Amino acid sequence: MKNVLGFEKPIVELREKINELKEFTKSSDVDLSVEIEKLEARLEKLQVDIYENMKPWDRVQMARHPDRPTTLDYIEFLFTDFFELHGDRLFGDDRAIVSGIAKYRGIPVTVIGQQRGKNTKENIMRNFGMPHPEGYRKALRLMKQAEKFNRPVICFIDTKGAEPGKAAEERGQSEAIARNLFEMAGLKVPIVSIVIGEGGSGGALALGVGNHIHMLENGTLSVISPEGAAAILWKDASLAKRAAETMKITAPDLKALDIIDDIIPEVRGGAHQDVEKQAEAIDAVLKRSLQELSVLSPEELVEKRYEKFKRIGKYTSLLQSSMKI
């Protein structure tokens, strides 16, 4: 049961049992077709019950699935003529962020995304998808270039968070993230951000100040990991499951809170089950999003982006509070 999540085990075990019976039927004279049909019907019902009633912690596990498609996986299916660009022109190149120019349905675009690995060697090379400051500066360099040549910017968010190490802080991690937020807010081209896995803290927000923010059905977006929140709130990281339910970090929760624009449905069993089909679902939302944004002027793009983030959250001003007294 390689790379099987805990809540998926009943499905995998039943599927293996069905395959065993099919193999036994082929190698013997015993007809087990009736039993196999019953088990397949049971499997179908089990899949519906599990995948359509996932709890927040189940979605967190799905977002972290080691086989989950990455930015480069989606680039292969969504874009043509992708040409990767490297370096921030200040320090070096950060492999945790992939960026470049490509064509989307024949239109030149700039593509930027966080990139994690799928095995130990890749994860070390990509720093487990946790960008350093030079990664965010590289992203910003590409964004400013996109603005110069009037190219839409498409961002893929998939990170546990920005690199928290001493070296990253010494090179200005917080400033690099803050600079991206500032510059993205005023960028005069369409920005579409898509959460394809985990969206952790400022590391995700540094690519998330978009006109439209979309999110895969089993993605997560939060200011801190459930384990981190549990350690702070209850002094026990093992209560991460409880924290995930409390924090409202899943796509359905964020859609209800009007933080994201669209939930992109995933193929049954998660995006890793069929990358090409999942890319088609992303393509449908991305196409509509760029069509809506393409008719807006640069000034309208900036204004609508500002209004979008201004609407997030609820607050009461000091003036309103004093008037009630």
TrEMBL record:
Start and end residues of each CoA carboxyltransferase C-terminal domain: 35-292
Q: Which reaction does it catalyse?
A: N(6)-carboxybiotinyl-L-lysyl-[protein] + acetyl-CoA = N(6)-biotinyl-L-lysyl-[protein] + malonyl-CoA
Q: Which domain of life is it from?
A: Bacteria
| Biological pathway | Lipid metabolism; malonyl-CoA biosynthesis; malonyl-CoA from acetyl-CoA: step 1/1
**Keywords in alphabetical order:** ATP-binding, Cytoplasm, Fatty acid biosynthesis, Fatty acid metabolism, Ligase, Lipid biosynthesis, Lipid metabolism, Nucleotide-binding, Transferase
| Keyword Signal in record | no
Q: A GO molecular-function term, please?
A: transferase activity
Classification via PROSITE patterns: COA_CT_CTER
| Enzyme Commission number, as recorded | 2.1.3.15
Q: In terms of one coarse class, where is the protein primarily found?
A: cytoplasm
Q: Which PANTHER family match?
A: ACETYL-COENZYME A CARBOXYLASE CARBOXYL TRANSFERASE SUBUNIT ALPHA, ACETYL-COENZYME A CARBOXYLASE CARBOXYL TRANSFERASE SUBUNIT ALPHA, CHLOROPLASTIC
Please report which protein family the annotation says this sequence is part of.
Answer: Belongs to the AccA family.
HAMAP family assigned to the protein according to its UniProt record, in alphabetical order? AcetylCoA_CT_alpha
Quaternary structure note = Acetyl-CoA carboxylase is a heterohexamer composed of biotin carboxyl carrier protein (AccB), biotin carboxylase (AccC) and two subunits each of ACCase subunit alpha (AccA) and ACCase subunit beta (AccD).
User: Which NCBIfam families does UniProt cross-reference here?
Assistant: accA (TIGR00513), AccA_sub (NF041504), PRK05724.1 (NF004344)
Name used for this protein in its record: Acetyl-coenzyme A carboxylase carboxyl transferase subunit alpha
- Look up and give the organism this protein is from: Bacillus chungangensis
Tell me the organism's taxonomic lineage.
Answer: Bacteria, Bacillati, Bacillota, Bacilli, Bacillales
Question: Source gene?
Answer: accA
